[in-house]
Amino acid sequence: MQTVSFSAIIKFMKRTDFTPETIKETLYTKILPYVLKPARYTGGEIGSRPPKEDAEVKFAFTFPDTYEVGMSHMGMKIMYSLLNDMQEVTCERAYAPWEDMAKLMREHNIPLYGLESFTPLMDFDFVGFSIQYEMCITNVLYMLDLAGIPYRSRDREDFGYPIIIAGGPCNVNPEPYCDIFDIILIGEGEKAVPELIEIYKQYKNKSKQEYLKAIMHIEGIYIPAFYEVNEKYERKALVEGAPMSIKRTYIPDMNDVYYPEDTLVPFVEAVHDRVMIEIMRGCPRGCRFCQAGFIYRPVRQKSLENIKKQIDDQLTSSGYEEISLSSLSTTDYKYCTEAISYIMEEYENDKINVSLPSLRIDSFSLGLVNSIQKGRIIPLTLAPEAGSQRMRDIINKNVTEEDILTTMEQAFRNGFTKIKLYFMMGLPFETDEDVIAIGELMQKIVDIYFGLKLRPKDLQLSISVACFVPKPHTPFQFFPQDSKEEFDRKQRLLIDNVNRKVRLTYHDSSVSVMEAAFARGGRELNDVIIEAYENGCYFDSWGDYYKDDVWAQAFRKFGLDHKKIASREFAYDETTPWDFIDIGVTKEFFVREAKKAEKATTTKNCYESCANCGINKEGGKCDFEV
Hints:
Strand content: 5-15%
Helix content: 25-40%
Number of helices: 21
Strand order of the largest sheet: 2-1-3-4-5-6
């Protein structure tokens, strides 16, 4: 059954039918009393900014997931405040309405709107989407549809519609959904978006095409409509002067990165309902499966003084009682101990809880977590990623079994009894013995606990096992993904080899295979996405909402097979759909690392030795001092 297109309905109506006043009145009288969690849709939270009625540029920052997920996203909060601090700009927010809300919006002809003023999204100058994970792309169509905005860029030729922008980490391969967006931002938005807006002021009364030509040379800006791509992923510029390589944009000094003095506090409990302080970007570890670790290079750290100020500002303005020091590798931050000590001492009477994501498996990390327990039983989360030493060397984890077992023993001795470990299966060169090794490692951990003669009932040991997805701009981008059938077989093998005292969860292999198809595909997938949405696919990352049969049918309609795209192997010298994106790290480096993985050879982390990844191409090595 096809999704009813709201766009098809409202294009026959006048925009004057959708004033903020009529939208707000209809919401409060006919819609919000009949939906779950109506506070998702009202705005007015602590930290929200009143709209500027005389603003020259109106920007809608939209997150293609629910309010609770979007309000947990630190990047959204940063960009929201950054844009509203610009004198002639007003920025509002929108999130993907849940089904009950969307149904009533369609029934009452209410388009998707900005939470701050109830202005329809179609009346903004820009609508920006943050693409954080591949399977949220149909939610972009879902939101455009509810807003009455055509899906494809070519159907929005003039300034009669907003300019649709995509930002976020998934854009390092933008091709599978490039038809949808007018502009795709590669890299860090804090730098590029203000530039886009300043130039827009000069072209607001001109054509959209003129504006796009004026911005195409800004670092990190990709205009998909300016290029033609063939089946071999060879590219041709359709506009004179359009750059053939798109270099990502980033801010070299983290102390120059904008950070708001206050923070948005949701009315509905968010997924991560706490203050989040970004302490650094990038990761020195070089795990070969980790896309974020490469696309955010080089490692950039904030000063301790800067972090202290941001801690004070955020806790004072929000009233939160928990704070997270956030990064890809938190305990690699140079002043991690000092930052924690500051919070513990300065806010001792306020009983502020501290969380540390992304811990290393070592005694230093454990000591930091132990110092913030304050008598509470808090969970300890670590990521060995693989059960055997061979696999940990292949992925360049640089952690030994002795490291893991020593850390577990120290954890148990220090009162940690609730422990979660993250693993992956389907990694390149994996054998059944490597899968079984996950169960064997867990048995050794169980034996350590009972060997210490601790209370058996206190132990809560769980593992989560993800299906490996080969991501662009990593050393593993060349390798095929396991088939769904192979993932399912390995999951059964693991179940048979895990101690029953260990709680085991694993990913839906169907979703992981589809995720790989979108991570590795090209422009041929644009039509598939629209077809799948029109046949009922949205909220695809929400468990039961994922419809594998509908997706497979959409692929078949266009002569494609998502399983073949996911399981494709790229030769080292072969052109990939994402080769034209320059993240700073060179393809030559990824080839070297892939070959080292074949031999189970490791590479030292950036703090120990430069691996010549190419992040500073002129000097041949990273010269950023950490």
